[in-house]
């Protein structure tokens, strides 16, 4: 497997929604929408449940054919069984909020909660003249799935939600945030 298809460790994240911001005014509106999420969605959830801890365990791929995988990801969920659905509710609510504000073009009822570990779109080729579709060569993940399907990666506290600018990185190698809300 080519090392370029692995996500850089410093960029591991959970994606809630993806959208484009074309002007400074749109960026300010998105920052305002994120702040509204804190007041309307996050604060009430945290008041009821307390600090949220995420467990990262198990591997899956975006398709069901382990022989031809383009995206391999780790599963993420809230640690306690009592609050397991909170992460899904939280991500769905944030995505819906950004959809209702006009940032997300296509509504999805359930956000696929995952941490991308490998993605063939990251693949670097010998020639930059190749077309993008030439980079997308699936890999065989059967051995990985056999060995690590139920692997426990660890747990962490959910501390922040970022509105990230994925075209730029900050000093620590993570996507440059336009705004960050803390939990």
UniProtKB/TrEMBL annotation:
Record keywords, A-Z: Ligase
GO molecular function: ligase activity
Biological process, per Gene Ontology: DNA alkylation repair; regulation of DNA-templated transcription
Ranges where the A-kinase anchor protein 7-like phosphoesterase domain occurs: 2-182
Higher taxonomy: Eukaryota, Metazoa, Ecdysozoa, Arthropoda, Hexapoda
Gene3D superfamilies linked to this entry: Cyclic phosphodiesterase (3.90.1140.10)
Protein name: AKAP7 2'5prime RNA ligase-like domain
One Pfam assignment: AKAP7_NLS
CC per GO annotation: nucleus
Highest rank taxon of the organism: Eukaryota
